């Protein structure tokens, strides 16, 4: 058996034994770790020449740094309070891992922005946890629309409205011409007809999508390119 065959067999064995949620969590953590390197090098992921990158970390940055600060203080405090060396070392490893995980999650968000492409498509992301490509022909309209929905990071209502929430808010509403399938952070599936997400500068993102919109063919009233982007 070739090396490729062994690799495929190993992946199949892992999929058969390890639940999908555990596999996805491990994959998210691996991407977060890689994002720390990319963040230190000031590089972004999936942004090409001509693309408009839209950050979304503004509302959560202070919170993330606050959590990191509390974790560091806790680590130092436990170093003085715990007299047993073995317990101290175990907790030290766990605390350091927790701090790196928090930084990695934030780094993944910084280095994986939303991307509006020149062809009219848009890539909507949240760090290493969520990634959805919306083709240009699936975009019906986009508007700046600040909302404060309740729910988890990725919430789907019965009307097919997908909320990708950052610090309790969304600022952009994207209406679609057709339902789009998406994958939740832990592997669940869903379909969205409307996507609401956050961008730090929603006007710039909406403007980039308007500029990339192809001209309507006046001879064909059914041309989907004739749909307005508000």
Describe the structure.
- The protein has 230 residues and is of the alpha+beta class.
- It has a domain at 119-216.
- 42% of the residues lie in helices and 24% in strands.
- It has helices at residues 3-17, 20-40, 58-81, 85-111, 202-211, and strands at 52-54, 114-116, 122-126, 130-134, 139-147, 154-156, 161-164, 170-183, 189-197.
- The strands form two sheets. Strands 5-8-9-7-6 form a five-stranded mixed β-sheet, with helices on one face. The chain has a four-stranded antiparallel β-sheet with strand order 1-2-3-4, with helices on one face.
- Strand 2 and strand 3 (122-126) form a beta hairpin.
- The termini are far apart.
- The model is unreliable at 216-230 (pLDDT under 50).
Topology (SSEs and partners):
Blueprint: H1 3-17, H2 20-40, E1 52-54, H3 58-81, H4 85-111, E2 114-116, E3 122-126, E4 130-134, E5 139-147, E6 154-156, E7 161-164, E8 170-183, E9 189-197, H5 202-211
Parallel strand pairs: 7-9
Antiparallel strand pairs: 1-2, 2-3, 3-4, 5-8, 6-7, 8-9
Helix pairs in contact: 2-4, 3-4
């Amino acid at each position: 058996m070739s090396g490729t065959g062994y690799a495929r067999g190993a992946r199949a064995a892992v999929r058969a034994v390890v639940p999908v949620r555990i596999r996805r969590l491990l994959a998210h953590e691996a991407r977060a770790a890689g994002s720390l390197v990319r963040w230190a090098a000031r590089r972004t992921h999936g942004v090409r020449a001509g693309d408009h990158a839209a950050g979304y970390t503004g509302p959560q940055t202070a919170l993330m740094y606050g959590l990191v600060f509390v974790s560091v203080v806790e680590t130092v405090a436990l170093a003085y309070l715990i007299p047993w060396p073995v317990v101290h070392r175990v907790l030290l490893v766990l605390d350091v891992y927790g701090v790196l995980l928090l930084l990695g999650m934030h780094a993944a968000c910084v280095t994986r922005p939303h991307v509006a492409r020149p062809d009219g498509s848009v890539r909507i992301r949240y760090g290493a946890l969520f990634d959805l490509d919306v083709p240009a022909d699936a975009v019906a309209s986009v508007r700046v629309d600040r909302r404060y929905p309740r729910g988890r990071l990725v919430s789907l209502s019965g009307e097919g409205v997908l909320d990708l929430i950052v610090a309790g808010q969304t600022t952009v509403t994207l209406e679609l011409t057709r339902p789009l399938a998406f994958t939740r952070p832990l592997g669940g599936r869903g379909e969205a007809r409307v996507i609401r997400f956050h961008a730090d500068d929603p006007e710039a993102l909406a403007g980039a999508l308007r500029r990339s919109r192809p001209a309507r063919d006046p001879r064909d009233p059914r041309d989907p390119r004739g749909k307005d982007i508000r």
